[in-house]
Write a structure and sequence with these properties.
heterodimer; A: alpha/beta; Rossmann fold; 10 strands; 16% strand; B: alpha+beta; Elongation Factor Tu (Ef-tu), domain 3; six-stranded mixed beta sheet; 7 helices; binds guanosine-5'-diphosphate; binds magnesium ion
Chain lengths: 302, 425
């Protein structure tokens, strides 16, 4: 047969499948946190490879901020239906009401902070002991230090100084009552790896990842889709542009990029040529402070 | 295109972070906004050059103290390879992080400051590289710009380090004189050191042969999970899901399920949900057995032609990673691949002084970062290999039974016993 050499994408895939199966083997009540973005879509694809022809040993869980793109929500429902797996949706809107939380004010009110409350409530409701997520270490400096099995206390907090050493491919998922683990199977993938994998595996994505025309507001050098959550002023510059999304999060804090890339090949070429990081270009909430992500994670953010 | 995982080791200020920053920068893996962020936080703006170290010194505490306190993973790629870097700190008290980084690496870059030569820390880091049996070592002699790019200085250090390498049995050692700050011999060959005949660091990283490090002869398949759909279409499907950590598996292969020692035959091999002729390390796969036997998570499906060791008592070299000392007779959990068993650490044979390589016999305990030789007894048998022969099935972790934290890294040293030719009388 062949040369018994694995391509880098096969190596990454195999590692991720191994992590998925460790979760299945070690935990009683895991969940796959599904956001509708490309990383979590890749996670679902990897889970299919890890567990088919069996069922997933976990439900898909979506924490809906209420600020999501309709395209992403439709895609989420269609995907869950197609693969025949259970989808649990919990709404930040409800948490705001029941807990009397205060919404951010300002031009682009973000629900990123509030999302944490809903997530922690959902973890408690279903007694999830492990939550699988699509974070990658190349996204951000604080992520670069996080383990693949990341133990959180009951407040969901990440303490970088208390991380367990993670040796070889041995994952210690033992936890005390009240603790849970966040698991990141695609920790070692970069944005480009994700796109190359999507292309190779022919994975379907929501349409907003590809070039389309949309009304956008120019804000602080970025393009934000106009929507009902944004208050427009007379001096705001709004125009129709051909754009695509590099990440898909909340409408209020995810920026679009001007692009004509309508195929995966186009997108990959653009990413190779670009000189701005994924978060830098599209996440409005990270720029607030250098340590923004670190703080959010300590507070239980995914 | 494949993957090379490496780590950088060196004393504080030898230039690890600068080197990594340089590799990322020169391979165009640093984006404009990330550079801007560094520029914003670079204190010495008058120097007029960005501090590349800030790229890896990620956490706030580190930026405040100016030291790296944990393992950070960084990524870059060239058309030849994807690289995964474990940036491990040089501080003495963080040796456990280096062990962690080394456990997943194919190669170690050991940095030496050309002005200081081989120092205690160099020795300590090299011991860890040797204990974890990394197949490749690059000794990067840094800050050559501060010693006038002197060939004599370089040669002296090479001679010194060769002795360290020989005493530790390090394999495949390559020496490169560099200046991480200026980029000499990092991506391009430096014109400042025409006397150096080898390749640039990146060139070495791109070409070092790692595929041969994968063991394709001794089949080991730790079962992680059993797939049993129990649906109408698939009432009897029973697939053992796991990752082939070494060897090749084909339909028809004779196997032994360990530690129970039950023999069977592979009836089908699947990868990614498709039936395939064969699968090999490090692929994740699903194996089916011809016989209806009891196999579950923690078992290892071993190729019959390459027996594994099965025992309840074995010797390990152990790196202690907890502030709470290791006390002989204490009970822990031992995890080796997917198997988790209770164990007791019996006597400590010796404690290794990582500076002098001297052995303190029969120590009463071991503290954080100590390396000890110990005997472990498990509550039930495990299937393992000698770490130095088969890394993928010779490493295990110890977990504290109450805090549930990972407290130790074990490298199994017990060698297979030759079976006596005929029974002893
Ligand atoms: N002159 C010179 N200085 C260097 C070189 N490499 C690193 N440095 C400096 O040495 C100091 C420590 O570097 P850093 O990368 O933080 O070391 P680390 O502690 O090993 O991560 C910094 O001031 C660097 O600018 C080099 O090749 N030449
Ligand atoms: Mg550093």
């Amino acid at each position: 047969m062949g040369s018994y050499k694995l391509d880098y994408l096969d190596q990454l895939e195999s590692e991720a499948i191994h992590i998925f199966r460790e979760v299945a083997g070690q935990f009683e009540r895991p969940a796959l946190l599904f956001s509708g973005g490309k990383d979590s879509i890749v996670l679902v694809h990897l889970a299919l490879k890890a567990f088919r022809p069996g069922k997933f040993p976990f439900p898909l869980v979506h924490i809906d901020t209420g600020h999501n793109f309709q395209e992403a929500l439709d895609f989420r429902d269609a995907l869950a239906e197609k693969i025949g797996e259970k989808l649990i949706v919990r709404n930040v809107e409800d948490t705001i009401k029941t807990r009397g939380l205060t919404e951010q004010k300002g031009k682009l009110p973000s629900r990123n902070g509030l999302q944490t409350y809903t997530l922690l409530d959902t973890i408690e409701e279903f007694e999830f002991d492990a939550c699988i997520g699509g974070a990658r270490r190349d996204e951000e400096k604080a992520r670069a230090k996080e383990r693949i099995f990341s133990v959180r206390d009951e407040f969901g907090s990440w303490d970088p100084k208390r991380q367990r050493p993670e040796l070889w491919n041995i994952y210690n998922g033992k936890i005390n009552k009240g603790e849970n683990v966040r698991v990141f199977p695609i920790s070692n993938w970069t944005e480009l790896d994700i796109w190359n994998y999507i292309r190779r595996e022919k994975i379907e994505l929501p349409s907003i990842y590809f070039a389309h025309e949309r009304e956008v507001l120019e804000f602080d050098g970025r393009l934000v889709a106009t929507n009902e959550f944004i208050t427009l002023h007379d001096d705001d510059v709004v125009s129709r542009k051909v754009v695509r999304y590099r990440t898909v999060g909340d409408m209020t804090c995810t920026a679009a990029v001007e692009s004509n890339a309508s195929t995966l090949d186009d997108i990959i070429n653009e990413i190779i040529a670009t000189n701005t990081s994924e978060r830098g270009q599209t996440r409005i909430d990270d720029r607030v402070s250098e340590a923004a992500m670190e703080d959010r994670k300590k507070n239980g953010y995914f | 295109m494949d993957i090379l995982r490496f780590l950088t080791a060196g004393s504080v200020d030898d230039g690890k972070s600068t080197l990594i920053g340089r590799l990322l920068y020169d391979s165009k893996s640093i984006m404009v906004d990330q550079l801007e962020a560094i520029e914003r936080s670079t204190k010495n703006k008058e120097e007029g050059r960005v501090d590349l170290a800030l790229l890896t010194d990620g956490l706030r505490a580190e930026r405040e103290q100016g030291i790296t306190i944990d393992v950070a993973y960084k990524y870059f790629s060239t058309p030849k390879r994807k690289f995964i870097i474990a940036d491990t700190p040089g501080h003495i008290q963080y040796t456990r992080n280096m062990v962690t980084g080394a456990s997943n690496s194919d190669l170690a870059i050991i940095l030496i400051d050309a002005r200081h030569g081989v120092v205690e820390q160099t020795r300590r880091h090299s011991i860890i590289v040797s204990l974890l049996n990394l197949p490749h070592v690059v000794v990067a002699i840094n800050k050559m710009d501060l010693v006038d790019f002197s060939q004599d200085k370089y040669n002296d250090i090479v001679i010194d380090y060769s002795q360290v390498a020989a005493s530790l049995g390090l394999k495949n050692v390559t020496y490169i004189p560099i200046s991480a700050l200026n980029g000499d011999n990092i991506v391009e060959k430096s014109t400042a050191m025409p006397w150096y005949e080898g390749g640039s660091l990146l060139n070495v990283l791109e070409t070092v042969e790692v595929h041969e490090d994968i063991n394709l002869t001794e089949g080991r398949f730790p079962v992680q999970y059993v797939i049993r759909p129990q649906t109408e279409e698939l009432p009897d499907y029973r697939g053992y899901a796991g990752k082939i950590i070494s060897g090749i598996y084909r339909k028809g292969d004779k196997v032994v399920v360990q530690p129970a020692g039950i023999e069977s035959t592979i009836s089908a091999v699947e990868v990614g949900g498709q039936e395939v002729e064969e699968a090999f390390a490090p692929q994740s796969a699903v194996l089916h057995l011809a016989d209806d036997i009891d196999v579950s998570r923690g078992d290892v499906i071993v190729k019959q032609d390459a027996p594994v060791q099965v025992a309840q008592e074995f010797e390990v070299v152990l790196c202690w990673m907890s502030n709470t000392p290791l006390v002989p007779r204490n009970k822990y959990m031992l995890q080796i691949n997917s198997r988790n068993v209770r164990c007791v650490v019996k006597e400590l044979e010796y404690k290794l002084n990582v500076n002098t390589l001297e052995k303190e016999l029969s120590p009463v305990s071991a503290g954080l970062n100590d390396v000890v030789k110990a005997t472990i007894k498990t509550a039930s048998p495990i299937a393992f290999d000698t770490y130095k022969n088969l890394r993928a099935n010779g490493g295990a972790i110890l977990i504290d039974e109450t805090s549930l934290v990972t407290v130790g890294a074990c490298m199994i040293t017990t060698e297979p016993q030759e079976k006596p030719f005929w029974p002893e009388i």
